[in-house]
Amino acid sequence: MIGDKKVLFSGMQATGNLTLGNYLGALKNWVSLSDEYECFYSVVDMHSITVRQDPATLRARARALLTLYIAAGLDPEKNCIYYQSHVSGHAELAWILNCFTYMGELNRMTQFKDKSAKHADNINAGLFTYPVLMAADILLYQADVVPVGIDQMQHLELTRDIAQRFNAIYGDVFTIPEAYIGKVGAKIMSLQDPSKKMSKSDENPNASIYLMDDADTIRRKCKRAVTDSEGVILYREEQPGIKNLLDIYCACTGKTPEEAVKEFDGCGYGQLKEAVGEAVVSVLSPLQERVKELSKDKAYLDGVIRSNAEKAQYISNKTLRKVQKKVGFPERPRQ
Length: 335
Prior knowledge:
This protein is mainly α. It folds into 2 domains: 6-180 and 298-327, HUPs (Rossmann fold, 3-Layer(aba) Sandwich), CATH 3.40.50; 215-293, Tyrosyl-Transfer RNA Synthetase. It has helices spanning 20-30, 45-48, 55-71, 89-98, 103-107, 110-118, 125-140, 153-170, 215-223, 240-253, 257-263, 269-296, 298-327, and strands at residues 6-12, 37-43, 80-83, 145-146, 178-179. The strands form 2 sheets. Strands 1-2-3 form a 3-stranded parallel β-sheet. A two-stranded parallel ribbon has the order 4-5. It is globular.
């Protein structure tokens, strides 16, 4: 806890391009949290290199993601928005936590198994210990809450286990983080396979709407969205393609599924797709304009990057120094 506020930590990887699902499911909802929590939002570029990256592309995407955070409405005066790689405590704490994490625990991580299958030619130690770095990300700031999806819940449970194990040996060093249960963002599915989530790593370019897609591209992708042959617009599991389009429409317009179904009563699928496309364009166009404005102001962004990294480093050092003392490292000379 910092002051009167509980601490919230979250982050996104600087790989691929963020999708409409990332925005409606997570980023959009982060904006409302800064009044209630002391928020740390990291561009987790250290996690990104478990898979080979082109250096120039990774740097560009990291800056683009940080810019998107601000463009989406995250105030860098209220929230700490920073690059993971700019705060040395992440790597330092991860090493210590590695020594309190068991091989059997890491072997059970389903994400390691999935990524190993996808990248069989590069099953590296970083991929194996990825959850420990994630634990360090969270524990470094004594986070009380962490917004996580189902796919990351296993990692949060491991973080809690590591923290409890360390505390059992050395006393109450770490806050035990809880999953953030608040307003649930819209769960946006693939436009081409509505049985799976919209993903920035999908190989089918028509499956995902990217935040920087132009208006014509967005409309075209919506028109190509998979539906069915029933010919009726209802909000039900038996029509996953139609349900997904209605979810997107409702998330963009603020309407309820019931209101949307009533609005499209008697309409064809083409009319629904057209309306969804326009709704998405109306939401993303202002965001894209703000990104363009911010991107032109290099001095402002550089200032945010510097000041927020200093804030993150200062706060994280408090935890790191305490941990280092507990495990028996010699005290560092004061600068």
